[in-house]
Amino acid sequence: RPTPCRRYGLGHTSPWTPAGSTAMQQLMRFAIITACYWLVAWGTFKIDQASCGVTSIWIASALMVGYALHRPAMSLPWLLAAVVVAVTLNGTVVHGGRTDLAFLGGLINAFEVFAVCEVLRRLGLRPGAVLSDRDVFAFLVLCVLLVPAVTAVFGASVRSPVTDVPWMQLWIDWWRADAF
């Protein structure tokens, strides 16, 4: 007897759903996720323009990590692709048509989402799970300090050659925006 609901990629489909519906649902979810990430990223890029450096907080990746935790693991590649597309579109518009830098920024942000999701998966941290002191400490050190520090190295290295801001200041700003 077929189960009432199965997971395929980004969506939940019934075994009685017509064959083309799964792909269409995945495409629609991808478009919606990309648009939502784009909107949040656009807002934070506007802060970037006002400060002439790196945004003071980058909430878009945190929202994507939260979404990824509540979706099946098979959806992560689609979520990461949505991050790359959204940041590339935003970065191209905000940074004067530099699609190459915008694409690299998208890859950096997607890497950060992936790394945090992978750390959380390996630690066994799931929504609703009771956390021990060790779990909280591991989360803070790995997901709040270490992963953003590594992505800040990539981000500062990409942004430094095209701005007048020193590399170390870009690294600090990028890390702080992602860590908070």
Features:
single chain, 2 strands, 180 residues, two-stranded antiparallel sheet, flat, mainly alpha
Short description:
The chain is mainly alpha-helical. A hairpin with a 2-residue loop joins strand 1 and strand 2.
Describe the structure.
This protein is mainly α and 180 residues long. Helix content is 70%, strand content 3%. The chain is built from 6 helices and 2 strands; from the N terminus they run ββαααααα. A two-stranded antiparallel sheet has the order 1-2. β1 (6-8) and β2 (11-13) form a beta hairpin. α1 runs parallel beside α3 (76-94) and α5 (133-159) packs antiparallel against α6 (167-179). The radius of gyration is 18 Å and the shape is flat. Residues 1-18 have low confidence and may be disordered.
